[in-house]
Amino acid sequence: MLVASLLFGCSKQDEVQKKNALNVTKQNNQLQSLTAGKTSSKAYEFTNNFILIAQSTNSLPVNIESEIQKSGGKFNGKLNKIGLAFVSSDDSDFINKASKIKGVQAVIHDIRAQWFDPNENVVSQELVAESHTGFPSPDDDFYFPLEWGMLAIDAKEAWAKGYKGNGATVAVLDGGFDLDHPDLAPNINLGISQNFVPGETLEFASASPFSHGTHVAGTIAAADNAFGVIGVAPQAKLMLVKVLRDSGSGDFSWLMQGIIYAADNGANVINMSLGALIPHHFQEKTPDGVINETKEIQQLLVAMNRVTTYAYQKGVTIIAAAGNDALDFNHSKDLEHYPSNCSHVISISASSPIGWAKNFATDLDVPTTYTNFGTSGVSLAAPGGDIYPSVTGNCTVVIGAPCYAFDLVFSTGNNSWYWSGGTSMASPHAAGVAALIVGKYNGNISPAQVESILKRSADDKGKPGKDDYFGSGRVNAGKAVDL
Questions:
Q1: What would the pLDDT profile of 402-432 be if each residue is shown by its tens digit?
Q2: According to the model, what pLDDT value does residue 122 have?
């Protein structure tokens, strides 16, 4: 989920140009307040497709395809191993008819949400310099000095000990990707990558200059290739799984299929830098009266929990963005944030420096202004970046960008490298550390063990012990590979 972005438009062929365009994108993905029983708008919509949930958690009813056809539906796909099927129908009474099939627990509408918005408030600015002089921690990947997140999590300490994610495969479930980006191409496994979005391809093809999935993938595993940036786990393999449109919207069924696919095709870690905030109870006013959507929404959580539990039982560590709604999970019991609040998912909040480019010794672990928080919904924290009005002026030591830009996370983007901020950027930092742990153990480690190491090695920030903003702490790569 994107909160703010700075788009640094360097070309792949000539990465340091004085006259490239710098775009600043300020995102505000605060969702409408959702109150049980009433609302004038909502953050999701029912589609004309359906999810059938079987009573069995590991199989579908016998002859389910023919039974669906008899009920006026068309069978579009299934996740038989967890008792889910995907169906379309033009019959207004389909839910009632299909719900009577023997062995069916519920039939619900597939739900579409806007999981992130990459196109809001774009501003342009000319670059006036190309020097990196003065930034800490030089590295032969020439943009590494801009990656304060790697400093915050002690990534270089893990690399110095010989751990770079070799042997781990991370599935990035997101929008489209720049498949030939020079920082990503060495680590992308196209043979096991997959697209679940009808009408689009795995390759990012939006008119928008920002590729959310590409940025996320680079934070996890941009190659250590003396070029551009470097990821937390620069030798991990990337399984790219497109479950959202390039515009950031998508159906829950696409996400469910993506999670199961990743689990069945060798992923050790799943990263989901996406999220939808949906109430447990909801009534919608229509011209025909009030429609109570509560049962369908609650059954959606049942279906999602089946999916994440299956992946967990297959040995996959699942990591997701905690969300950018500045919401206190401890006092929002009627709201569910998908997928971070689903079973066996490690939920990541976002931290940031304030004015890092002006003072490299500044605290890198300030809770961001947008991050969701609360001990009931946050597992760990990681660098996510933010924009602060108090950080003004230009820091000419690097490309003449405004100083506030450098408090965001710098990573790969479509044909270029970009700054961006959000729990979307925090989650891949944590996923990268998980990949380092998996690599150390050559994949012979359970998700429970990975989560335990992440928490035991995390730096205790905020209040001592488990904290509303940091959960069990901010992830630390250098310490994680010692356990």
A1: 888 899 999 998 888 888 999 999 999 999 9
A2: 26
Contacts of 117 (CB under 8 A, 6+ apart): 2, 27, 29, 247, 248
DSSP letter at 471 equals B
| 128 and 51 in a common domain | no
Q: Beta strands 74-79 and 104-114: pairing type?
A: unpaired
Instruction: Tell me the helices (H) and strands (E) count for the chain, helix number first.
Output: 10, 22
Which residue range forms the structural domain that includes residue 319? 122-481
Q: Which two tokens stand for residue 51?
A: 């999810």
Q: Which two tokens stand for residue 225?
A: 């290739």
Query: Residues 313-327: what's their mean pLDDT?
Result: 97
- Taking the whole predicted model, whether its pTM rises above 0.85 is answered as yes
Phi/psi-derived region of residue 296, left when phi > 0, alpha when psi is between -120 and 50, beta in every other case? alpha
Strand-pair category, 283-286 with 289-292: antiparallel
Neighbours of 376 (CB within 10 A): 14
* 129 shares a domain with 94: no
Asked whether the beta carbons of 408 and 145 are under 8 A apart, the reply is: no
- Tell me: pLDDT of 145 over 60: yes
The answer as to whether 12 is a domain residue is: no
What's the token pair of residue 118?
Answer: 């990459």
Listed in sequence order, the residues at least 6 apart from 362 whose beta carbon sits closer than 8 Å to its beta carbon are 353, 354, 355, 356
Alpha-carbon distance of 279 to 292, in angstroms, equals: 12
What average pLDDT does this structure show over 291-311?
Answer: 92
> Per the structure block, which two tokens stand in for 280?
């447990």
Query: What is the mean pLDDT of the segment spanning 235-243?
Result: 98
- Whether residues 410 and 465 share a domain: the answer is yes
Residues classed as catalytic = 174, 212, 424
CA distance 146 to 267: 29
Contacts 24+ apart (CB under 8 A), 311-316: 311/259, 311/260, 311/262, 311/263, 311/270, 311/344, 312/343, 312/344, 312/447, 314/263, 314/264, 315/268, 315/446, 315/447, 316/171, 316/262, 316/263, 316/267, 316/268, 316/269, 316/270, 316/447
Q: What are the backbone angles phi and psi of residue 168, rounded to the nearest 5°?
A: -105, 145
Q: Which residues contact 335 (CB under 8 A, 6 or more apart)?
A: 34, 277, 278, 279, 280, 327
Which residues make beta-bridge pairs with 78? 85
d(CA 446, CA 439): 12
Q: State the Cα–Cα distance between residues 59 and 80, nearest whole angstrom.
A: 5
- What is the residue type of 200? E
Q: How many domains does the chain have?
A: 2
Phi first, then psi: give them for residue 260, nearest 5 degrees. -65, -40
Q: Which of 41-55, 104-118, 133-147, 150-164 has the lowest mean pLDDT?
A: 133-147
| Rounded Cα gap, residues 339 and 304, in angstroms | 8
Give yes or no: residues 102 and 128 share one domain.
no
